[in-house]
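Work Package 3 (structural annotation) set out to generate three-dimensional models for the target panel prioritized at the project kickoff. During this period the team completed the workflow that converts sequence records into discrete structure tokens, so that structures can be stored uniformly alongside our sequence database. As a representative example, we reproduce one entry of 215 residues exactly as it appears in the project archive.
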Amino acid sequence: MKYHKFRIDVFYPPEYRKKFHDILSSEERKEDVSCQYVIEETAPPPEMLKDAILVLASTLTILKILYDFHKEIKGKGGRVYLTAKGQQFDLEAYNLDEIKVKIGEPSVKRYKVELTFPNLPQDEVKRVAPTLSFRPIYLNGKELSRDNEVQFADYDDVTGKIKTTIHVSNEEVNDLYERGVPVYATAEYKKAYEVFLCLILSTEPIASASRIEEY
């Protein structure tokens, strides 16, 4: 399944915080939407809060919900911004139909892969696993656009592997997968700094690499 991918930046009075998070939680329970909270902080003026959330949505129903929320908070100085495909939309300045046209068809697929690093001590793998989150993706040596990235990575104590979720809009990768061509994944590790630099995809088997699977 392909998804719409966008970011929402919301500025609102503190009393609306619970309602906003409840709205997103409700949509996530329907499994139409997946959210990753990036920022929660006090925003100027001091009485306002800011949330920044990365969203993956199978439908654009959530846009109507965000638009209604924007109408509710704008009288108190609140604002909702949406960023998709490199363009930011102020929900006060654009109507829903305009935004939907600009966003276009869903273009992102979500995959999962479990990575192993037999040449590294397991305690080190466990410690550095989260550094792979939000890293860029390479295919056969070429860096993909920033619409393609590792969304989440963490160590699994049961399997001893790094469980990774990736978002891919690259048509070549998605086409290969849909045609049943194996796509293998591993990651580049900088031992001196104990950090993962990127996820590496390849159509050729790589030592200790695993095949990606649709989420």
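The first strand starts at residue 2 and ends at 12.
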